[in-house]
Design a protein that fits this description.
The protein is an alpha/beta fold. The chain has a single domain, classed as 3-Layer(bba) Sandwich (Glucose Oxidase, domain 1), CATH 3.50.30. Helix content is about 25%, strand content about 25%. Strands 1, 2, 3, 4, 6, 8, 10, 13 and 14 form a 9-stranded mixed β-sheet that branches.
């Protein structure tokens, strides 16, 4: 006989990167981070900022697996927030209802969150804009979720085609969201100078007479 699953499971303790690691990645364009990762790491292209002028963030992921049409896991994540965290909420790609609205995101902001990312939908757009918390989602719908679970907080998830663990660094801007795995943070930071230099070199060439990439012949 299979026992009933708990309504909410939480994985503790919650690991987080060092403040110096976050500072080194803050403000870096997502494209540069992808290049430093070797060309991948971005979430599905449909996960975009609800408001383009509220899209920049960089912080450690606090994961929650809500499943479709339920947001108990998101609410369960709120007491575990630390200042600077980004709530990353998996819905299994469900778009039939919103996973959060302005009230939940207001609570998240009050708890120290600096961003919210989901592969589902949200609602209450004017209120979310007033809250001011960068919110990335696949769409908007006024339909409301249940609050029954089961759900999980702090465990590894897959969202937008990318595996994400609590403590990974999540970076967002108008292009989308990129995830830096916890054990690759220092390596990515070390590669950023080379990425910036290569980008600056190509930008200089594009401003000049160059008409095609070096080494490419018509």
């Amino acid at each position: 006989m299979i026992e009933d699953a708990p309504k909410l499971s939480t994985h503790t303790p919650i690991r987080r990167p060092r403040p110096q690691q976050i500072a080194a990645l803050e403000g870096v364009p997502t494209g540069h981070v992808v290049d430093a990762l070797g060309g991948s790491g971005a979430l599905d292209y449909r996960i975009k900022p609800l408001a383009a002028d509220q899209s920049a963030f960089c912080g450690p992921a606090l994961t929650c697996d809500a499943g479709p049409a339920d947001n108990l896991a998101v609410l369960g994540a709120l007491p575990h927030l630390a200042p600077g965290d980004v709530i990353v909420a998996a819905t299994a790609g469900h778009t039939g209802c919103a996973i959060v609205g302005d009230l939940v995101l207001g609570m998240a902001r009050n708890g120290g969150a600096i961003g919210f990312v989901t592969d589902g939908c949200v609602r209450d757009v004017p209120g979310i804009r007033a809250v001011g918390l960068p919110c990335f989602c696949v769409g908007v719908t006024p339909n409301s979720p249940a609050r029954e679970g089961p759900g999980a907080v702090g465990f590894p998830i897959v969202l937008g085609g990318v595996a994400i663990a609590t403590g990974d660094v999540v970076i967002g801007d108008q292009d989308g969201v990129v995830v830096v795995p916890f054990d690759r943070i220092d390596a990515v930071i070390a590669r950023l100078d080379a990425v910036r230099a290569a980008e600056a070199d190509m930008e200089a060439q594009v401003r000049g007479p160059v008409t095609h990439p070096p080494g490419l012949r018509p």
